[in-house]
Amino acid sequence: MSQTRQLAAIMFTDIVGYTALMGKDSDKAMELVDVSKEIQMPLVEKHHGKWLKEMGDGAMAQFASALDAVNCALEIQENARVKLDAKLRIGIHSGDITIKNNDIYGDGVNVAARLESIADPGGIYISESIEKAIRGQTNIKAMDLGEIQLKNVDYGVRTYALQGAGLPVPDLKKDKKASGGFFAEMKRRGAVRIISILIGLLLIAFLGRLAYNKFRDNTGNASTIEKSIAVLPFRNDSPNEEHLYFCNGIMEGILDHLAKIPELTVISRTSVEQYRENPPSIIEIARELNVNYILEGSVLRIGDRVQISAQLINAQEDKHLWSEQFDKNIETADIIFQVLAEVTQNIGRALKANISPEVQERIEFVPTSDITAYDYFLQGKEHFYNYYRTTDNNNLTNADRLFDLAIKQDSTFGLAYAGKAAVFVRSYSVENRLDSVLIYCDKAILLDPNAAFAYMIRGGEYYVAINDMKKAEKDIKKSVELSPNEPTTVRELAIFYAKNEEYIPALKLFKSAEKLGPDPLILAATFYLKGYRAYLNMGDMDKALYFINKSIELNPLWEGTDYWYYIVTGKFQEALEIAKNKNRNPGITYTYMRGKSDSAVLYLDQLEAERKVREGENYVAETANSRYGIALIEVGRTDEGMAIINYHLNRIEQRMDAGTASSGEVLHVVGTYSFLGETDKAIEYLKILDENYPWVHRIYLLQVDPLFDNIRDREEYQEIVNNQLAKNKSIREEIARLEAAGEL
What we know:
Elements lengths: L2 E13 L2 H7 L1 H21 L2 E7 L2 E6 L2 H18 L4 E13 L2 E3 L1 H12 L5 E4 H7 L6 E8 L8 E7 L18 H7 L3 H28 L8 E4 L3 E2 L7 H16 L5 E2 L2 H4 L9 H8 L3 E10 L2 E10 L4 E11 L4 H17 L6 H8 L6 H20 L2 H17 L4 H12 L7 H15 L4 H15 L2 H14 L4 H13 L3 H14 L3 H19 L2 H14 L8 H6 L3 H10 L5 H5 L5 H19 L10 H9 L3 H21 L4 H13 L3 H14 L5 H7 L10 H26 L4
Parallel strand pairs: 4-6, 9-11, 9-12, 10-12
Antiparallel strand pairs: 1-3, 1-4, 2-3, 4-5, 6-8, 7-8, 12-13, 13-14
Helix pairs in contact: 1-2, 2-3, 8-11, 8-13, 13-14, 13-15, 14-15, 15-16, 16-17, 17-18, 18-19, 19-20, 19-21, 20-21, 21-22, 26-27, 27-28, 28-29, 29-30
């Protein structure tokens, strides 16, 4: 894994008014992007720069010289004034950057992006580091705007606006602050991956930690759990830096084994990763993670020789409890697994944790003896972990390739098949994705009965894609039994219970997941799912929004996830604004708004045209979104609309007969028949839904979606709705009582 640090001048650019234009004239907006690129790319090359990224209407470039960056920006603006039917904003900063796996992030990137976001239309804002570097250039003038506190930059940045012919003169009376819409702007450009890599790793590590500490301080720090432990990232002492994956594999192997012991509370790897570089004291780490014990260690690998060192520390007393060094020749993988098992058992004894014979057997299980297969697996696992942190699809591709190599080397290596299943779960565009996931999970479990991750993946597919709740519950519970300290596994069981309206066990599991995964990335997802799957489903709208907002506070990548909350609560205008701000097609949102079918069809026609081009000869018009079909009927395109509606009615009714339909699909059948005026049929399916499926949040959607207007006066409708609302109210009251008693 290559990583270099250097000083560089970073230039960010974007088109002013692009978002609004996209909503009015997408063709014109895309034409502007093309012209802007045609202007900028040759000039970046001319001024000895490197074109790094395109982000919708925005771009980023790197220069070795501050003067080159400034001259390039000036020439870009000069050309844009003539050739571009819009204005550009440009920000430039010189600072420390990190280049890792062909991606770039760091202070230079963050500050340049913030400067661009506050620059005047047609203007160029630079930081003091750039201004100092060009101060001797008499042909370049800059206006001092003073020190500006840029959003999410923890120091003031002295900022200058370049001046000259055609450049705007800033209004010094205006309070220049970094736009709070920066992350929304980046995500509007479709740059989820860019945010994750360029800004996320730096910003989330800093802000997330602060936000979590604030959350913990506001809610009261729970009493430290007696047998709680965090395994810090092991130090890679190998002369070959690329052996970091092996070092991480050893650390995570120990962590995974410890997580199998029910008496222990083990913090996830993701949550300790923030302490890899420049960690605070052991006592401070323990306080932040709310643990009593810390394990730290190192790995030295030279050829087939490996030295593994580990030491266990009582963090409350800053006292070493146990330490050991293993010096092994790893001709086979068995040796590594013996060391992992021995370290785990020694820690268990030191903490006086009971290790049952069943758990002992799991810890001592050897998944492969082939050291080459194991090495491929560890490399693949590291790429998959990096994909999870960055959403970089290159990591997913590399993980898939390395898991394949591991299987080719040892066809009985169950964990490698589990890795393949995890890759396919995220490969949404792959044909036969579900079949591939299930096949690889089945193979992994057959070869390795301890493959908790494979059970979790398979269980998730059973209830999400197949709607087989019995199989789902069995698999997910098995995954928690095998790995009771893995926050994603615990959270998956919480989601399962919440989707089945078992809210009290769901909330208890969400609470456990919060303790096990305090890292901002994991905790943000936990908070969002707790708000969306539990509190929204039971009708506690205030707490639902509270936890959804908490997730956004911890991780800006969750911005926009409150969209469905506003749909379910009937706040369609707010949902529409989110859709537009996030550069989503707002057509579906308009279908929830009375009298907006023309707008819905306008946008959904565009979406269908794009789908037709994308799918080519495989395109089938009837498979379009069913709400599009309803909107088509409302604007007089009845034949097109009915073709779509009938396709979906037949499809869902077949799934109902097979027992694989979801409650959302059945509710759509109710809404379709209600819209068509076939109210008796609508009530018939409403009763089927009420008797056989969990309502969750759909009981609230039922009350605000205009599809159901024709049956709201029916007595049967009112009885079903009132009964479910009363049931949810009773659940909320019981949960409030348990929360007040400290039991939730």
